[in-house]
Amino acid sequence: MSDTRRRVKVYTLNEDRQWDDRGTGHVSSTFVERLKGISLLVRAESDGSLLLESKISPNTAYQKQQDTLIVWSEAENYDLALSFQEKAGCDEIWEKICQVQGKDPALEITQDPIDESEEERFEEMPETSHLVELPPCELARLEEIADLVTSVLSSPIRREKLALALMSEGYMKKLLQLFQVCEDLDNREGLHHLYEIVRGVLFLNKAALFEVMFSDDCIMDVVGCLEFDPSLVQPKKHREFLTKTAKFKEVIPITDSELRQKIHQTYRVQYIQDIILPTPSVFEENFLSTLTSFIFFNKVEIVSMLQEDEKFLTEVFAQLTDEATEDSKRRELVNFFKEFCAFSQTLQPQNRDAFFKTLANLGILPALEIVMGMDDLQVRAAATDIFSYLVEFSPSMVREFVMQEPQQTDDDVLLINVVIKQMICDSDPELGGAVQLMGLLRTLIDPENMLAPTNKTEKTEFLSFFYKYCMQVLTVPLLASTAVIENKNVLKYNFQTAQLLALILELLTFCVEHHTYHIKTYIMNKDLLRRVLVLMNSKHTFLALCALRFMRRIIGQKDEYYNRYIVKGNLFEPVINTLLDNGTRYNLLNSAIIELFEFIKVEDIKSLIAHIIDNYYKALESIEYVQTFKGLKGRYEQEKDRQTLRLNSRYRRDARTLDEDEDEEMWFNEDGEAIEKSRPEEEFPESFGKYMEAKKVKESDNKENFPKRTPTGSFKFTFSHSAGAANGTNGANCKPVTSPTSAASPNGSPAKSATPPATPTAMVGLVDYPDDEDEEDEDEEQSPRKRPRLGS
Predict the structure, then answer these.
(1) 3-state helix, strand, coil in the chain (%, to 5)
(2) N or C: which terminus of the chain has fewer CB atoms within 10 Å of its end residue's CB?
(3) pLDDT at 376
(4) Rounded to the nearest 5°, which phi and psi values hold at 774?
(5) How many CA atoms does the CB half-sphere of 587 hold within 13 Å?
(6) Could you please report the per-residue DSSP string of 411-468?
(7) 50 sits in which H/E element
(8) How far is 55 from 37, CA to CA, in rounded Å?
């Protein structure tokens, strides 16, 4: 069998019952040795890679739709579709499939998947029952026709046979002509039967029937039949809505008649599915899958046709940004783009990528910058929707545009600042637009979507730009609302203002968690936390909770720069005042404040614990319904004990080091003569012997030792032993002597008489050794320096 190559798109149906585009290529049918049969092969037109390799199975049900689609299922929950560029290509591949399966190419479906019980019933039927005979298309037989259509819906095979019968001899068009007769005669019974017939035909789920029913000649009659639901007292007026209320507006004249017809058809079919037909039951969900596919592929075709018409889109953008364009015309243009972007959501990722790149190249972002700043609420709302499509698709594209805007331009006209101002000035009492814009801003400043390897500097550059040009605009309402801290009347905001401040705080809290350096610098430079905590006095509890959450997120960073900032500013005071003012009420505010202090206790943030206990414990010690504050006090006392033990341990280490140094570095004879350890003992045998005898009879360290000359005639070390050296109250002064003259100076004479020994617990080492400096540094890093008020 010869190969036939045709240009197609390969689609697969995902779990959400949406078609995913797998790529564009050329299809052929050929024998594949590995699969042992004739197979459909699709190779990508870009690189020749294999997009699809599917054996044509004799038992697989293939379905032909809309003249250019072939759909089938290869396995459970795995549906495939080939969308052909040309009808001739689709027909040729369809003939190959039918040839392999031994089917008539005139069929729209090769076979239906049926369960075993259905197959058994089918085999038991007489041969004549395989065919569905339709009654004559007459008014008197409408009830019979309606019963027949309704009865076959439960049988896949009978649905297929009925669909074939309806397609023969123009039966559907004859039925729709009877509708006009019944309506002229006001034959309600006949109209009710026609409603059941048309509804049942839609549930047959056959693309070939849809092509007839949704043609320009028939679709309004189909809508008319669906107006006469027997369960309604009065028929609906769907046709009146579609022809009079719903107006088709061509913002720019569409010269392509096929495109215009496709737009009309898609709108009306979507109306039938969404408005006219009742919500399908669980058992009817799959009955309209072909209708969904029909709409989907129509939208894909519309977007593709518009996208390829560069002259049309260029004209739309030109009028949109022209200052001379009337407001009503501009409103229509923006609404057109909104619908255009909404249709683009049916495209698959690679096609949607090309679509938005086309819009970006034509200047969609500069146009939005203009229209989002206009006074017309409808225009701004539509522009916001378009902006949301762009941000959702590619935040990086929006960020790149923003950073390329001229820096000499006034900050107020930057796109992000326009978005922020629109969020701040939202007139909706529920702030619906502000919430949407806040979500878009959050997406734009989220570092998680700034990690593309192709642009590693995006995060640093954009955040620097945002904090330099935009952050001050975002915080204007917050800083203005908390400007007069002493005047609590300033906190009597209305609900809408409180909601806006809560949105801003939510965004700032996000920044604390994700931006670290930039937001830390901004908070400290603006003293922002102090201003935020003013809102703890708000009558709106949700706003006070937002302020508390902001502080909680800051403390949650466990950053000592933040901790020192909080301690220095006494920023726990408004939180503790709110806790005390709340009294014994057990509410969310109370729980959130307790959780803040519990976190500090559990994480053992020493600097904050010391600050809280030193300054606020007297006010908090009466709170006993939780053990949080007693736990903080316990942590505080444990730290004091550790510091005391550390000091004593340091003294004992210093004293022990002194003894070891005396033993290792210097040997003394009983007359107090200093001997160098480094000399060989054979050079001074007499002194060495005297030292060994003195060591055996040595009783205490309080004996006065005077420096003596060594046999060489010079002093190596001079020790000053006071009586306090024995009891630990004074230290020894150890220093090198560079000349005999300096060593013999009266200043180096021994100390005075001894004093009675003190108790060991009072020992404090006063000797600093160079070797101990590193250890002291380590101790200082491990725990904060002892504060003057710590022992109070």
Answers:
(1) 60, 10, 30
(2) C
(3) 83
(4) -65, -40
(5) 12
(6) GGGSHHHHHHHHHHT---TT-HHHHHHHHHHHHHT-GGG---TT-TTHHHHHHHHHHH
(7) strand 50-55
(8) 6
CA dist 674 and 669 (Å) reads: 7
Rounded to whole angstroms, the Cα distance separating 95 from 155 reads 27
Burial of 182 (0-12, 13-18, 19+ CB in 10 A): buried
Whether 701 contacts 728, CB under 8 Å: no
Q: Supply the pLDDT for residue 690.
A: 45
| Residue 164: how many other CB atoms lie within 10 Å | 17
CA 438 to chain CA mean position, Å: 13
Could you say which residues of the chain have pLDDT below 70?
1-5, 75-77, 111-131, 279-287, 406-412, 451-456, 484-492, 651-792
With 0-12 / 13-18 / 19 or more C-beta atoms within 10 angstroms meaning exposed / middle / buried, residue 64 is buried
Predicted local confidence at residue 363, as pLDDT = 86
Chain segment 256-284, per-residue pLDDT in tens: 888 889 999 999 999 998 888 876 654 45
Those residues with Cβ within 8 angstroms of residue 426's Cβ, 6 or more apart along the chain or in another chain: 432, 433, 434, 437, 500
| Residue 519 half-sphere exposure toward CB, CA atoms < 13 A | 21
What is the number of alpha carbons within 13 Å of residue 185 lying toward its C-beta? 12
Q: How far is CA 469 from CA 120, 531, 741, in A?
A: 75, 21, 72
Q: Supply 74's token pair.
A: 């290869």
The residue count of the chain comes to: 792
CA separation for the pair 562, 123 (Å, rounded): 81
Token pair, residue 347, equals 């495209």
pLDDT at position 249, please?
78
pLDDT at 711: 41
pLDDT (0 to 100) of residue 523 = 95
Instruction: Identify the helix (H) or strand (E) that includes residue 365.
Output: helix 364-371
Residue with tokens 């540094």: 777
Rounded-to-integer distance, Cα 719 and Cα 696, Å: 21
**Distance separating alpha carbons of residues 758 and 754, to the nearest angstrom:** 12
Q: Give the pLDDT of residue 321.
A: 82
Cβ contact 92:6 at 8 Å: yes
Tokens 């210097």, residue? 666
Instruction: Please give the pLDDT value at position 410.
Output: 65
pLDDT at 206: 86
Q: Are 610 and 636 in contact (CB under 8 A)?
A: yes
**CA dist., res. 135 & res. 137, Å (int):** 6
Q: Whole-prediction pTM value?
A: 0.61
